[in-house]
């Protein structure tokens, strides 16, 4: 398996030896050979038949960056029609529920702006709020740890578990722990850590990667889940693909672990600086079990998850459930502040993790991504995500938010870095901005990151795109230039044929664009030419209409009798008369012009 690092490029993850790059010609030849090789297809079919489900993605060493670039990975995921059907069904359903709940809120846009302002306040006063949060957690019996990166966060958690001699741990769904690859790290050190969220449990049992921040197993259907449970669960019992049967099997499996586990690990949706409170929003109750039954609770939280005051939870609690799952409120909303004697965990640790977030803060435009509350609304609305799936992004943060967050967390701008291509995984339609409850202007950040990418890789010699864009800028900034361009493309009308559009053009610059888009044929007569031909008529009609209008406003009529007759007419007839008077001089002038042209021709 290959991994990529800025220092060494692609390396073999087992031997750490560098992997030589291959030319595009060689890569294409290998791809063709794969498709034409019956043995390869037979092996893929055999593996899928053996498992009973699509194998998915192997768990990588770096959850933020793995595999190929987005365009290459998307070609693979687009071929998985079953996954695309699963995604289409699930995202459509969630989007519909969200739309219903949003329509109920008369002040939805006001709430969005409020959350945006709250988060901007956090970014502007980050250091002070983090220190305030630490003081309040400590004052209420909790212990605060600081982690600069994923490795340090995992090491801290491992140290805490070893102090307790823990061998089994239950875990609440957490994107922060996915970001650090905590599960794999613990398994390598002999600790059995089990996901208790149903979707995360499916992903863990199938040895797969999540493809959505809220619904990690959104790429699976219930038939696949049944197969996964039957082959990977310790005692699945008799299963069908009915959702209730599958849920009850998961419940029976997890109940034993809830009652026996002494330590739980969780993430956090929010931390309140004013009180030291930590909160989780969830829909299954597994989080509540993990937050109350074990004696020790360890929470990993990204440092951007803060809000300044407890009253800010009012805004978040209205926006997050509606945006994430289409619910008015989550069935289980849990807040805890430090340690309470004889109530819940008697030992509470929270790790505040940076892992690239302060790097994101340095960018005045890109820092808006830190306002994200991980609701997944942008993914559910994004046409690129719905077709390519979350696995095409090769990061635990897929979709539009992943396209702006992952490259910034990693500082990825090198053209060889697969994460650097993520800002281009968008059509810039703007639907994600409209759906985002924190009002993150994702399209603008995507354009900003694309600019940074090109600035970092442009080199000394301008490439064809840079030259082309500069030429287009000059052309489109000039009226005469646009007129000349319109005349220049007229000869290409013959390429369009009777359908009046141009399909794929195998030319070096335009082939990628026209491969998936039809270009309308140039019109036989441009608007400028049409206007010039009819300019005299328009001017005459305009002057006549202005004159009549002026006369009407001034009350100048051709005699009292005419005025009385006009007033006696119905409104529609009176307006028709005014129109006839307005266009009569213009028509006369046009007729005179035609007669003159005829006389000259004769």
Automatic annotation (TrEMBL):
Residues 1-24, 560-602 are annotated as: Disordered. The keyword Ribosomal protein does not apply. Residues 362-392 form the 4Fe-4S ferredoxin-type domain. Residues 581-591 have a biased composition (Low complexity). GO terms for biological process: lactate metabolic process. PROSITE patterns: 4FE4S_FER_1, 4FE4S_FER_2. Residues 10-24 have a biased composition (Polar residues). Residues 593-602 have a biased composition (Basic and acidic residues). Keywords: 4Fe-4S, Electron transport, Iron, Iron-sulfur, Metal-binding, Repeat, Transport. One of its GO terms (molecular function) is metal ion binding. Transmembrane segments: none annotated. This is Iron-sulfur cluster-binding protein.
